[in-house]
Write a structure and sequence with these properties.
mainly alpha, about 85% helix
């Protein structure tokens, strides 16, 4: 009998509890890989859009014009575009208020960007905690299946007069399959979580640096075209 057929037979002939553990680990693995592909696409897209927008921002484009372009498609704006739009909008809206000095206007603009920043980072980190949970608990779930399978194998030995390796081997083998499945679910989840957490941190730093740079530009220039201010209102 081929190895694949032997493993398949062990899975189907395993005890109910061990089969339940294997099914749970299979669900963990499928869910983990789905989240890996989903998070990879979202985080990679956010990083690429942030780099592209920074290139456009530092190309010398007029800020009022850039603000109007983003406002025309605000629903489809990406993370860094949303930061710029929120900050510039608040700056343009409050700049003409005689009751506020420049520092207060800049602080209000920064607060508006911080709100958007928090939402964008939360969006990038969504489901990462679940990925970490899969990576941390899957080995223990697999270990439970292993302990249960080995326990049943030794209980079965107590009912016979003479124990042989052939009698105990299937029970131990099915138990070890549970451990292997636990590791199969956990290892990709842990690797992906660590990688995604690092990439989210890099994008987060891009956002924070951009916010500081935009605030410095607004502070130095201290001017917004009237039509931009009107649109912001």
């Amino acid at each position: 009998m081929q190895a694949e057929m032997s493993i398949t037979a062990l899975i189907f002939e395993a005890s109910f509890v061990v089969q339940l553990v294997m099914l749970l680990l299979l669900a963990f693995s499928v869910a983990g890989w789905m989240m890996i592909f989903q998070r990879r696409k979202i985080i990679q897209s956010a990083s690429q859009h942030a780099t592209a927008f920074e290139d456009r921002f530092w190309s010398g484009v007029d800020l009022a014009r850039l603000y109007q372009e983003i406002g025309a498609r605000a629903q489809n704006a990406n993370g860094m575009e949303k930061l710029f739009y929120a900050g510039f909008k608040e700056f343009a809206r409050l700049r003409g208020n005689p009751a506020l000095d420049q520092q207060q206007v800049l602080e209000a603009s920064y607060r508006a960007m911080r709100v958007v920043h928090s939402r964008e980072v939360d969006r990038l980190e969504n489901n990462l905690s679940l990925l970490a949970t899969i990576g941390s608990i899957s080995p223990y779930v697999g270990l439970f299946g292993t302990v249960w399978g080995i326990m049943n194998a030794f209980i079965g030995l107590g009912a016979v007069q003479q124990a042989t390796l052939a009698m105990v081997a299937p029970g131990i083998a099915e138990a070890l399959i549970a451990t292997a499945m636990g590791l199969f679910a956990a290892i990709p989840a842990v690797i992906a979580y660590n990688r995604f957490a690092h990439r989210v941190e890099k994008v987060d730093n891009q956002y924070l640096n951009f916010m500081d740079e935009l605030l410095a530009i607004l502070q130095r220039q201290g001017s917004t075209p009237p039509k931009a201010a009107g649109n912001a209102a």
